[in-house]
Write a structure and sequence with these properties.
mainly alpha; disordered C terminus; elongated
Amino acid sequence: MLSKVLDAFWRAAAYCFHPRVILLSLLPVAVAGAAGFALAWFYWEPAVEAVRLGLERLPLLAPVMQWLNEMTNGVFRSVVGPLVVVALAVPVVLIAAMLLVSAFMGTALVSLVAKRRFPTLERRYGGSWWRGAVGMTGATGIAVLALVVSLPFWLIPPLALLLPPLIWGWLTYRVMSYDALAEHASADERHEIMRQQRTPLFVMGLVTGYLGAAPSLVWATGAMALPMMPLLLPLFVWLYTLVFAFAALWFTHYALAALDELRRARLGELLPSASPADGAIRPSAGSASAAP
């Protein structure tokens, strides 16, 4: 199982350098980057100031804020506002990047992998765009709710490193798995693969969650330089887009390989064994992938 996950990983990494993938990644970056740049340019400083004043006016936090500000010679007051705004903005940017990749790149990436690696794999269209949209909306709502509920636990260092990637991993696993199988698998095949491959698919989502958290480390540096924040935001959007484009390719390689293997196994069970006296030769498992 691990070898198949790693095989799909390296194939996805190689596909990220394909010219078509690079061109496809520009559209989500253009949409989200332009929107993020505009919002940061016009609302970054007002948002930072509003957060800072709001924290200083809270009765429970005001004494702590004043003490920390005195201990840091005024540095804490200039930093706390940007850090809070960034902490609130990161989930929004992450979700936007993943949804844009799914909307603008998902079908094209699946077609690219299928054409180059599984040209004979039959399309059975077990999913539809509206079912995918409904499932994506529901999964995103659950993830956002989990983020809000878990926010107080982020103050505990070990949980801060575990909870966000777990939530992003689960959301990525749900969205990317459906996108990878919607066109080629029937509904029955998709459900069976999701059941059989639940553990490796979730592990792939978890790894993607940590990869998605990596660009967030750069946000802290950007939060220190307020004048540069509107210019840095498109860069962060681009990094998140690359992560989720890679994830889409990774899930597609793994899921389509699992679908091909499932059909080979089913064909092997359906074909009757032939004795040598009959003069018939039972097809090998490799011939099943060429079946219409």
